[in-house]
Amino acid sequence: MSAYSLIYGVMSRPLSPLKRQAILEAAAKCIAEAGLSVSTARVARQAGVAEGTLFTYFATKESLLRALLLDIEQNLAASLPLDGLADSDARGRVRAIWDAVIDWNLASRHRSKGRESAP
To answer: What is the pTM of this model?
Structure first.
């Protein structure tokens, strides 16, 4: 609870997980297009939110970038084939992981293109 909430007796609205994800996806797209120097204003526009809203979810640009990296790492880790890896030799494990990373990358690109063409 914030100091404002304590003084005036009001609670702030809970943050939307969908809006947070939209900001992360917009950041990924903008960074892919313009690099790490992309402005937070551009990311906010891409996400369809005000720049102040972006900073409600992420206190700084650095925290946005850290959250984006974590999101990408979690998505990649979730796509890795852990079942049956112990039965493979080292070469087979590396190949399975390599193939999964390539598949994940291609699927990520496909999802990005699908969002771009969506109405």
So the answer is: 0.71
